[in-house]
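Hello Y.,

Per our agreement to keep a running log of every chain we model this quarter, I'm adding this entry. I've kept the format consistent with earlier entries: sequence first, then predicted structure.
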Amino acid sequence: MLAGSGDRKQAEPSNGMENLRVLHPVDLDQVAAVYHDAVISQAKGLYSQAQIAAWANHAQSSNAVREALHRGYGLASCAANNQNIIEAFGVLDPPQRLSLLYCRGRASRQGRGRLILQALESHAWQQGCRQLHTEASQLSKPLLLHLGWQIDAEEQVIFAGESFQRWRMIKDLSEQNEMGRDG
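Predicted structure for the entry above:
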């Protein structure tokens, strides 16, 4: 499931890409910390305490995030003054699936999720993908809808021992390419 990551434009001198970098397996501890913080700081009011606890601890209690980092292609949005401090991240795993998108609460609503998604969409297009899919949480669904993703189906799933509502979503990348955003 994906957590929210803000959709307001970040105040930045250019297109914001200077604060994005490729994720590496050595980033696992920071990625797990961002994952945990994103859920703890932003899920209140949308999820029960049991759901929040189960979801927040999933990155450290399972190998799913570690495996996605090893197999997939990920980008990190870093602090403006330090490329070693990850504030948000996204991962494609496999190349046609947005598997992770998380942002620390302190860094949310700054456009980081939008920048990461646009860069991942461009990367997927360059890899030959013409459509992306994902499973969105209540946190990420509004951002994805705003950026042109469409709901394919709503579902109830058991995740980390708790029942969650989520949305299978898709995005046609050929429309993006026709608009000149093919990176």
